[in-house]
Design a protein that fits this description.
Helix content: 25-40%
Radius of gyration: 22 Å
Largest sheet: 7 strands, antiparallel
Distance between the termini: 59 Å
Order of helices and strands: EEEHEHHHHEEEHH
């Protein structure tokens, strides 16, 4: 589904796959692309505190832990101008779009009932249900598996029935790497493609000369 009927353009969003990377369950396009997107990295060096890290200071034990944060706006004002074409917006405002996002952080009712049935049946070890594989898509060159870590909704306007008609959604996403998923998991292979695309972009940047840095050679 999409969160808007705005004119055609490339938008960021999320694709939800079945657990393990199976069939596409849903696709969510942001109604308005955010003005800013924050990415941060935690470097994964070898060793911990003390001598081990000092002994091998230049070794990386795995990909850096990348986190992505963005704010997205959802607004039903345009749809409400043409109520005959947007019955759901009239009846529910943007509540359906918010519910789609909320499903990213909640197990389904069926999954919860299945766990309850196992508990009632005396199952000794109950594994939590596996969540779908979520992909963050920001152009075709940036498709990466993520886990939602932070999620908040600020509802800013309501219709006479108190349905939300405008809201701001804040999303925090943790990129899932091969350290998390392994090399054979669908998400792991998608991460490797993402990392390879970043390497290809880096190769296009060229490099500065030493003289531009104020030196003629390495001391």
């Amino acid at each position: 589904m999409t969160l808007t009927s705005s004119p055609k353009l490339v938008k960021g969003g999320l694709v939800v796959l079945a657990p393990g990377g199976g069939a596409v369950r849903n696709s969510i396009a942001l109604q308005y692309n955010p003005d800013t997107l924050t990415r941060s990295y935690q470097v994964q060096g070898v060793g911990g505190d003390g001598g081990g890290e000092r002994a091998q200071p230049f070794r990386l034990k795995g990909p850096a832990i990348e986190t992505i944060k963005l704010d997205a706006e959802i607004d039903a004002t345009d749809q409400l101008e043409f109520p005959e074409s947007h019955a759901n917006a009239v009846a529910f405002g943007i509540a359906p779009q918010l519910a789609v996002l909320e499903a990213l952080v909640n197990p389904s009712v069926d999954e919860l009932l299945a766990v309850a049935a196992q508990t009632a049946g005396g199952t000794l070890e109950i594994l939590p249900p596996e969540a779908p594989l979520v992909l963050f898509v920001w152009t075709r060159n940036r498709v990466v598996p993520v886990r939602v870590t932070d999620f908040s909704i600020t509802e800013e306007a309501f219709d006479p029935s108190l349905n939300p008609i405008r809201a701001k959604v804040s999303l925090g996403l943790r990129v899932m790497s091969t350290e998390d998923l392994g090399f054979t998991h669908k998400g792991g292979t998608i991460f490797l493609s993402y990392l390879r695309a970043r390497e290809a972009l880096a190769a296009k940047a060229g490099r500065a000369t030493l003289t531009s840095l104020g030196i003629n050679n390495i001391p």
